[in-house]
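U., I forgot to send this yesterday:
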Amino acid sequence: MIQISPDNIADRFMRYVQIDTQSDPTSTAHPTTEKQKDLAKLLLKELYGMGITDAGTDEFGYVYATIPSNSDKKNIPVICFCAHVDTAPDCSGTNVKPILHRYYDGKDIVLPDDPSQVLRMSDSPYLKNHINSGVITTSGTTLLGADDKSGCGGYYGSCFIFCAEPGDKTWGN
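Result:
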């Protein structure tokens, strides 16, 4: 059975957030900025690296891939993973510096590039669920883009498992 490494997941996510995919609300193009396609190109390259051959991107920056079913059953439906890669225009997507706080201890996290930005458990009580776990933040002057890019990381982790364990029939039944 494949073992998923939290470090690999964090590394992948931190690679993704460093790619500027900031959207432009005034644009009528799709995607609203061409730089969003930079992440799509990386995602495609990673799919190929997993051994997925039926993959591609389109002019809108969508990434598509299929992994054949490994089930002996007929008419197994295809699984679709779908995530957006754009980040909000409210804050810069350039020079994102992700920081992995490897063993979060419950104390305030002061973001080094803007010390006025502080994550406090009193403001974000869900942080108590992550004590002794890793927490990833930015350095304080950019958005992290975690909503979409963590989704991409999860999808790619799933694809990795499907490709690495082709003989495991449990996911195709």
